[in-house]
Amino acid sequence: MNTYIINGKKFLDKRQTFAYLQKILNLPDYLHNNLDSLNDCLSEYCYQKNIIILHKQSIIDNLGDYGLSLLKVFQDNSEKGILNLIA
């Protein structure tokens, strides 16, 4: 099983966040800069992958409520068994 480490300090704004996630998680070019698209791509391209998110507080500090929503997308996919979110 593949393991991906996501550095929350790289989440400076929405544009950079999605570019970073696309690169790190090998998501397709059609990833749009929104949470619905991220959710769809995680479901399709991250099945049974381990994902470690470091510096979660930086995500919240930089993106505010949007950062909380983004983290929830990862958590929801973990609860559905799509990916393995490692704390």
List the helices and strands and how they pair.
Layout: E1 3-7, H1 14-24, H2 35-45, E2 50-54, H3 56-63, H4 65-79, E3 84-86
Parallel strand pairs: 1-2, 2-3
User: If you average the pLDDT, what whole number results?
Assistant: 95
Strand content: 5-15%
Distance between the termini: 17 Å
Oligomer: single chain
Describe the structure.
Helices cover 52% and strands 15% of the residues. The longest helix has 15 residues, at 65-79. α2 (35-45) packs parallel to α4 (65-79) and α3 (56-63) packs across α4 (65-79). The two termini are 17 Å apart. The protein is built from 4 helices and 3 strands, in the order βααβααβ. The protein is an alpha/beta fold and 87 residues long. Strands 1-2-3 form a 3-stranded parallel β-sheet, with helices on one face. 18% of the residues are buried.
Describe the structure in brief.
By secondary structure, the protein is α/β, with parallel strands linked by helices.
Based on the model shown, name its key terms.
single chain, 87 residues, 4 helices, 3 strands, 52% helix
